[in-house]
Amino acid sequence: MKYKPEDYAKALLAVLREKKIPEHKAVERFIALVRKNGDQRLFPKIIETVETLQTKEAGGTVVHLEFAREASTVLHHKLNTVFGEKDRVKTSYNQRLIAGARVVIDGEQEWDYSLERKLRKLFKNV
Amino acid sequence: MSFDIIEKLKKEIEGFKDNVQLEHFGIVAEAGDGIARITGLRGALSQELLIIETEKKEVTALAFNLEEHFIGVVILGDSGAVKVGDRVHQTNKVLSIRVGDELIGRVINPLGEPLDGKGVLFTDTSRGKDYTLERSAPSVLMRESVNTPLHTGIKAIDSMIPIGRGQRELIIGDRQTGKTAIALDTILNQKQDRERSQVICIYVAIGQKNSKIAKIIHLLSDAGALAYSIVVSAPASSSAALQYLAPFTGAAIGEYFMDHGKDALVIYDDLSKHADTYRQLSLILKRPPGREAYPGDIFYLHARLLERAAKLNKENGGGSLTALPLIETKLGDVSAYIPTNVISITDGQIYLESDLFYKGIRPAVNVGLSVSRVGSAAQTKAMKQVAGKLRLELAQFRELQAFVQFASDLDDATKKQIQRGELLTESLKQVDGEPMSIEKQVALLYAVTNGFFDDLVLEEVPQFITKLFDFLEKLYQESILTVLATTGVLDDKTKQTLDLAIQECKKLNT
Hints:
The complex is a heterodimer of chains A (126) and B (510).
Chain A: H1 5-18, H2 23-36, H3 43-57, E1 62-67, H4 73-82, E2 88-93, E3 101-105, E4 109-112, H5 115-124
Parallel strand pairs in A: 1-2
Antiparallel strand pairs in A: 1-3, 3-4
Helix pairs in contact in A: 1-2, 1-3
Chain B: H1 2-14, E1 23-32, E2 35-40, E3 48-53, E4 58-66, E5 71-75, E6 87-94, E7 96-99, E8 107-108, E9 129-132, H2 155-160, E10 170-173, H3 179-189, E11 199-206, H4 210-222, E12 229-234, H5 240-259, E13 263-269, H6 271-284, H7 298-306, E14 320-328, H8 337-345, E15 348-352, H9 354-359, E16 371-372, H10 381-387, H11 390-404, H12 412-428, H13 438-449, H14 461-475, H15 477-487, H16 492-509
Parallel strand pairs in B: 8-12, 10-14, 10-15, 11-12, 11-13, 13-14
Antiparallel strand pairs in B: 1-2, 1-6, 2-5, 3-4, 3-6, 4-5, 7-9, 15-16
Helix pairs in contact in B: 5-6, 7-8, 10-13, 11-12, 12-13, 13-15, 14-15, 14-16
């Protein structure tokens, strides 16, 4: 049977919540299970989903900040103060944005302040 | 020209307004075979247009499957450009095309884009209207009974299987039996049916060969039929998505004219290929397969399409949309899945048989199995008068035909009946691409059913028919043909004149 990364993530979190076995044992067995199912390639997605679910359970928001190029430390600090302690903030760099930034909320919604979006919108009608 | 481009760019830059809003987005998780599966976009609507931002351009897609964790979309543009990880945005619009009088004479694809190289459509955006491809059929209260004939110009059909404006009449038969020929003759005949309002014809080519579509366009163009026709082309080389959408495009265009009080005719050539395309899309999108691997809603696919054909009442403009769907059978099996589905939806069928075709009876219409559920309500009085006995005489002839093979001595009455049947069959033969006006059909059938051809040798019949029409056109145009065309009635005076004319013609030519 094929399991989705969400299924693995939810199962792992449920085991960790119940605390019937020590945490390190639970993780060891989980890794062995995923390898046994031949789903090793899903590990990055599973980890991301676990972090997302934990953040949401705690009442926070997963925020992904994409910049066109490396942002200054001042900007980083400013952005971190905008979000709460429970929020999980990730930063990455995407040259396709050309300039500006994109803010993704919970992987479902975005504010796109990039130059790439503006140019695409501008030339759409041309 | 570069100055124009620069000016246009300047205008766009000066008028550019950027409102950044919080937007939902999705990510392409799988892509291939003309479809994609998208994660996110939980608020997407069924049949909503989505925009996939690929590296090179934006590609439009149609939300087809709304599943728990994915949206299955059908890609309407260049599916090769879409790759995993591309972002997808909603448009909050369902798929629609711009329709209007400007479409007449044009060849377009199912998305409304011109294919004939005659220029951009709807440069003036105030002209035309947006019509959604999926639309509810007119309700019962908006309709009235079919009461105006749609003449095909084919004797066998106009006399015994009459079609009315607003009817759905299926044309069904094996490959190469003349289904498309009947449909095209119907389009060509609309040029000479001047006593009624002009019918706007829409020919929808689904999964046809490009060469065949090109031939059809040339035929319509040479005959001057493009002046009132539109061709929607989704050839076999186009994507499954476009082949799936083509009939809906044709229906939307027809509905525009119907809503404006005009009569429209839409020909779906053919719905068998449409069903196959829908099956392909559904299987790729992992919808559960049913009988013959078709999805469970294959009946609904054609039912909702064909229900859009209607005759509207005067309060709603009095327009009509007639549908002529074509279905290809395999080895004459009309009891197969798709043919039976469409037969049960339509208001009758014209059944073409390969056996008749190879015997030389063309159009190869099996009059016994063909039916029009609208019937004589869609016939002129004159045609009703002459065609009343036709079906019965042909049915009697068919029974006797089988009998004749085993009996050698026949009485005179039986011989006469066989001879009359043979003459009728010969008279109903017609070359494709030459539709006959209704007044000539009435004159001919009157002559045959009243015994004027009884003394002719079978081989002489086609020649005599040509001479008879020539004679009537030269000497009796006003007194017979024009009267029949304008009044639609074969009164006693016209009958007497016609009797004289036929006898005169026979004297001159025998």
